[in-house]
Amino acid sequence: MSSQIYDCIVIGAGIQGSCTAYYHAKNNKKTLLLEQFFLPHSRGSSHGQTRIIRKAYQQDFYLRMMEESYKLWAELERDAGVQLYRCTGLLVMGPEDGQYYSAVKDVLQRNKVPTVMLKREEFNQHIPNFNLVSGENALVDTSAGVLYADKALASLQRLFQSHGGVIKDGEKVTGIKPGPVVTVTTASGAYQAKSLVITAGPWTNTLLSHIGMALPLKVEKINVCYWREKVPGSYDVHNRFPCFSRQDGPEVDQIIYGLPSNEYPGLMKVCYHIGKETDPDARDNQTDQSDIQVLQRFVARCMPGLVPVPAVVESCLYTLTPDNHFVLDCHPTYSNIIIGAGFSGHGFKFGPVIGKILYELSTGQVPSHNLSPFKITRFQTPKSAL
Question: Among 209, 218, 158, which Cα is nearest to 33's?
Answer without folding.
Answer: 158
